[in-house]
Write a structure and sequence with these properties.
heterodimer; A: 116 residues; mainly beta; seven-stranded mixed beta sheet; four-stranded antiparallel beta sheet; B: mainly beta; Immunoglobulin-like; six-stranded mixed beta sheet; globular
Chain lengths: 116, 113
């Protein structure tokens, strides 16, 4: 597609509910990143994939957070037993990854998660 | 060592002025320094990026100045316009931007007519 698509755009979850956030990267982009952006803050890294391999998950805040990209394209970020502190905008980005030349990320518009 | 410090937190500039936003990093493994622009309800959009082998890069009205020895870099916006009003984030990362980025805390820029 023309850009990175994320769905849903908004999600309200009751505390304790499980949620799944979807990211459709730009077609052909090898790398896919998930970031969490709290209100008034910069994005914070969660995890990153190169094709279907999850190469870095050091930013996932707890074992309630899980991400997958089984076929190297669409990715899902799952949060189990949501807590109020999980309320944030979850951003997905993709990158073509072509060796030394950094093309930079293209971000989606994000999913705003509100846990009540 | 992963922090990227950004200042100021907010900035108000008259139309036509040159807002300057500053960032400092600590990790010497960082070799890619992009700036992103974010409008409300949208994801960050890449404006311009620099590698540490150059001290300045210009793209249109946007200029990055880079000081490798001081581990600092800054964004200058020439002939600023009200449409430039947005939040700006600096970031830094290793491996030529192919891995995770560490973002600054953002600068809310307002350009008044």
């Amino acid at each position: 597609g023309a850009g990175v698509s994320q769905s849903p755009r908004y999600k309200v979850a009751k505390r304790g509910q499980d949620v799944a956030l979807r990211c459709d990267p730009i077609s052909g982009h090898v790398s896919l990143f998930w970031y969490q952006q709290a209100l008034g803050q910069g994005p914070e890294f969660l995890t990153y994939f190169q094709n279907e391999a999850q190469l870095d998950k050091s930013g996932l805040p707890s074992d309630r957070f899980f991400a997958e990209r089984p076929e190297g394209s669409v990715s899902t970020l799952k949060i189990q037993r949501t807590q109020q502190e999980d309320s944030a905008v979850y951003l997905c980005a993709s990158s073509p990854r072509t060796g030394r030349k950094g093309y930079g990320y293209t971000f989606g518009s994000g999913t705003r998660l509100t846990v009540v | 060592q992963q922090q990227v410090k950004q200042s100021p937190q907010s900035l108000i500039v008259q139309k036509g002025g040159i807002p300057i936003i500053n960032c400092a990093y600590e990790n010497t493994a960082f070799d890619y320094f992009p700036w992103y622009q974010q409008f409300p309800g949208k994801g960050p959009a890449l404006l311009i990026a620099i590698r540490p082998d150059v001290s300045e890069k210009k793209e249109g009205r946007f200029t990055i100045s880079f000081n490798k020895s001081a581990k600092q870099f800054s964004l200058h916006i020439m002939d600023s316009q009200p449409g430039d009003s947005a939040t700006y984030f600096c970031a830094a990362g290793p491996n030529f931007g192919n891995e995770k980025l560490t973002f600054g805390t953002g600068t809310r820029l307002t350009i008044i007519p």
